[in-house]
Write a structure and sequence with these properties.
By secondary structure, this protein is α/β, with parallel strands linked by helices. It has 13 helices and 12 strands. It has helices at residues 15-28, 44-48, 61-64, 79-93, 118-123, 149-152, 160-166, 170-176, 178-183, 242-253, 264-277, 282-293, 297-306, and strands at 5-11, 32-37, 54-58, 101-104, 110-114, 131-139, 155-158, 199-203, 208-211, 216-218, 226-236, 309-311. The strands form 2 sheets. Strands 1, 2, 3, 4, 5, 6, 7, 8, 11 and 12 form a 10-stranded mixed sheet that branches. The chain has a two-stranded antiparallel ribbon with strand order 9-10. Helix 11 (264-277) runs antiparallel to helix 12.
Length: 321
């Protein structure tokens, strides 16, 4: 089979969401999913381990032993370390298999989105391209609660041409205009939220040194040939619904240093959450969720007409086994 593709993920999500997410990608055309479960006792493992298109990997001491610091424990290993190791582990694992492509770091709140057939899309990638860069379409919630965000959310932010110009020329632009490097990711407005760099599909025969969050790094002296495609994206369902939004902020709040690795914009949003949370007023907290997540109706009209917002309704059949 030509253009055979697998994916690697490190996830921790509710059972129903995980099963929807798996069904969607297998129906889309991904041939095999390697799923690393952050919780070794995740209920989804029993549901999926008999599926011959899924390999379940438990992120336990046996799998991550070499990442645990001397005298430490599994909980001392941060998520980014797990993410990068798991991608490298699977990349090495598939070297003796017949996969042509690997989707690196497909998160449980992300769906791959392709215009047309996945295999047809891959077949039209030029032979010299080693990394396909998929830019994100970041979700815009429009209500407080969702039964299934994947099936119900239809509005997405689209950076489009802006991001496709910026990321291929990022190093040069940051060298010429230092302000860009200083302020990258520091835009706290509702529109520019989420990870703008997206994810990558990598040819399995390229010389990779390691996998970072968004792009693989080639071995010393190897400059990987990339393409920022306009025919495929990552749909990022970023805290869709009040409960999910609240849970994510609480997770950050309970860390030893909540604002560590946060830029100024993110700290401002965290302070808004914290101020309402400490009042112990659910309605006040919902107001903050709406102000941080929703886009006003008047702005929607302008952003939709300019192409900076997109309406996408996914076929519900894709989410069934």
């Amino acid at each position: 089979m030509k253009n055979k593709i697998c994916s690697v993920s490190t996830i921790k999500a509710p059972l129903d969401e995980t099963l929807e997410w798996v069904n969607y990608h297998l129906n889309l055309g991904i041939d095999h999913m390697y799923i690393c479960f952050d919780n070794p006792k995740d209920k989804a493992i029993k549901k999926l381990e008999k599926n011959d298109k899924v390999t379940c990997i438990k992120c336990d001491e046996n799998h991550l032993w070499h990442l645990i610091p001397p005298g430490g424990k599994l909980s001392d290993v941060n998520h980014q370390e797990k993410l990068e190791f798991n991608a490298w582990f699977v990349f090495k694992l598939i070297q003796d298999k017949d996969y042509d492509w690997m989707f690196a770091h497909l998160d449980s709140d992300e769906l791959m989105y392709v215009k047309g057939d996945l295999k047809d899309f891959l077949s039209k990638i030029k032979k010299e391209i080693e990394v396909i860069c998929l830019l994100p379409l970041d979700s815009v919630p429009e209500k407080d609660y969702y039964k299934s965000a994947f099936q119900e959310v239809t509005l997405f932010r689209n950076l489009g041409k802006i991001a496709r110009f910026y990321y291929p020329h990022k190093k040069l632009l940051q060298k010429v205009i230092p302000f860009i490097k200083k302020e990258e990711g520091n835009l706290a407005g509702v529109y520019f939220r989420g990870h703008a760099a997206g994810k990558s599909i990598v040819r399995t025969n390229v010389k990779i040194d390691r996998f970072t969050g968004h792009r693989p790094i080639g071995k010393e002296g190897v400059e990987l040939v990339q393409e920022f495609t306009s025919r495929a994206n990552v749909l990022h369902f970023n805290a869709c619904g009040f409960d999910v939004w609240k849970s994510k902020w609480l997770g950050k709040h309970k860390r030893k240093n909540p604002t560590q690795n946060m830029n100024k914009g993110k700290i401002k949003l965290y302070c808004q959450f914290l101020h309402a949370y400490q009042k112990d007023d659910e309605e006040e907290l919902k107001k903050v969720y709406r102000s941080q997540s929703f886009i006003p109706s008047t702005s929607k009209v302008i952003l939709l007409s300019s192409g900076l917002l997109r309406k996408i309704k996914l076929d519900k059949k894709l989410f069934h086994k």
